[in-house]
C-alpha cells in the first residue's frame, strides 16, 4: 500500500495521505514521498493547483513520535513534508476531513485555503508533549489569525472544530464529509484553464504583499506583473472576446 497517493484531475493535483490505520502520521518515509509529489506537481506544466487531504477519519495526526529526537537534521526531515506544501509555488487547498494535529496542523495552516468538514479539528497539541511549536507554526498561524485566536490555540492549547475555524477565518467553508473532495475541486473551477505562469506570479505577489512592503512597493510590483499579463496571449484573447461581447450587446 502506498502511504501517499497522487493523481491529477482537471489540471488539479490531489495528494492524499494514505495510512488511516496510523492516522496518516508524517513518518520520515511519508514526508519524503510528499516532497517528491509536491515537486512533481510544480514541474507539471498542466497542473494549476494542489489539494492535500487525508484518507479515512483523520486528516493527519502529526509526526511519528518515535522520530522525535533532539536532532536538528531529524526535525528538519519531519518538517520537510508540510514545508514542501507551505512553500509550494502553486495555489494550495487543504481538504481537512478530520483532526489535523501537531505537524498535521502545520500541514493544514501551510496551505493557502482550507475547506473543512464538521469532523475537522485543528489541534496544535505541542504542549501536550511538552514541546515548543515548531516548523514555522507561529508564523503561519499569525498570518492567518488574529492574536486572540493564535494565543488561544498556542498558549492555551485550545483546539478548534471545523466550524469554529470557519467562524474565526482559518477556513473558507465547512461542507459535508461525502462532498469534501468534490467541493475542493469545484473551488478550483475558475483557474483550471488559466495559464500556470499567471497563477505562480499572482501567488508570489500575494506572498510579497503579506510582508513589510509599502503600498507603493506592491503597487509597482503589481503594475509590472499586470503589464506582463496584458502582453500574454490568454489576456489578449480574453480582452478581445469581452470587447466583442460588449459591442454585440450594445448592437
Number of helices: 10
If strands are numbered along the chain, what order do they take across the biggest sheet?
A: 1-2-3-4-6-9
How many E-type strands? 9
Helix content: 40-55%
What structural class do you assign from the helix and strand content? Answer: alpha/beta
Backbone shape: globular
CATH architectural grouping of the largest domain: Alpha-Beta Complex
Mean pLDDT: 94
Let me know the CATH homologous superfamily of the largest domain: 2-enoyl-CoA Hydratase, Chain A, domain 1
CATH topology of the largest domain: 2-enoyl-CoA Hydratase, Chain A, domain 1
Give your account of this protein's structure.
- With 251 residues, this protein is α/β, with parallel strands linked by helices.
- It starts with a strand and ends with a helix.
- The mean pLDDT is 94.
- It is globular, with a radius of gyration of 20 Å.
- Helices cover 46% and strands 15% of the residues.
- A six-stranded mixed beta sheet has the order 1-2-3-4-6-9, with helices on both faces. Strands 5-7-8 form a three-stranded mixed beta sheet.
- It folds into two domains: 4-191, 2-enoyl-CoA Hydratase, Chain A, domain 1, CATH 3.90.226; 196-250.
- It has helices spanning 28-43, 72-86, 103-109, 137-144, 147-154, 162-167, 180-187, 196-209, 215-230, 233-250, and strands spanning 4-9, 12-17, 49-54, 92-96, 99-101, 113-116, 121-123, 160-161, 173-174.
- It is built from ten helices and nine strands.
- Helix 1 (28-43) runs parallel beside helix 2 (72-86) and helix 8 runs antiparallel to helix 9.
Amino acid at each position: 500500500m502506498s502511504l501517499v497517493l497522487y493523481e491529477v484531475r482537471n489540471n488539479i493535483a490531489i495528494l492524499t495521505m494514505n495510512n488511516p490505520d496510523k492516522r496518516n502520521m508524517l513518518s520520515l518515509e511519508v514526508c519524503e514521498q510528499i516532497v517528491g509529489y509536491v515537486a512533481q506537481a510544480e514541474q507539471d506544466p498542466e497542473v494549476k493547483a494542489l489539494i492535500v487531504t487525508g484518507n479515512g477519519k483523520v486528516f493527519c495526526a502529526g509526526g511519528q513520535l518515535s522520530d522525535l529526537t533532539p536532532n536538528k537534521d531529524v526535525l528538519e526531515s519531519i518538517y520537510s513534508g508540510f514545508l514542501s506544501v507551505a512553500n509550494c509555488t502553486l495555489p494550495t487547498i487543504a481538504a481537512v476531513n478530520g483532526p489535523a494535529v501537531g505537524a498535521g496542523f502545520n500541514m493544514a495552516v501551510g496551505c493557502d485555503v482550507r475547506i473543512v468538514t464538521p469532523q475537522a479539528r485543528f489541534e496544535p497539541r505541542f504542549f501536550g508533549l511538552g514541546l515548543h511549536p515548531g516548523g514555522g507554526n507561529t508564523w503561519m498561524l499569525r498570518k492567518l489569525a488574529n492574536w486572540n485566536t493564535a494565543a488561544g490555540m498556542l498558549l492555551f492549547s485550545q483546539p478548534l472544530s471545523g466550524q469554529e475555524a470557519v467562524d474565526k477565518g482559518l477556513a473558507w467553508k465547512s461542507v459535508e464529509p461525502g462532498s469534501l473532495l468534490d467541493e475542493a475541486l469545484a473551488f478550483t473551477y475558475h483557474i483550471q484553464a488559466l495559464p500556470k505562469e499567471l497563477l505562480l506570479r499572482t501567488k508570489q505577489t500575494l506572498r510579497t504583499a503579506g510582508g513589510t512592503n509599502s503600498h507603493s512597493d506592491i503597487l509597482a510590483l503589481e503594475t509590472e506583473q499586470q503589464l506582463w499579463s496584458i502582453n500574454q496571449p490568454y489576456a489578449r484573447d480574453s480582452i478581445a472576446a469581452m470587447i466583442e461581447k460588449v459591442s454585440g450587446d450594445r448592437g
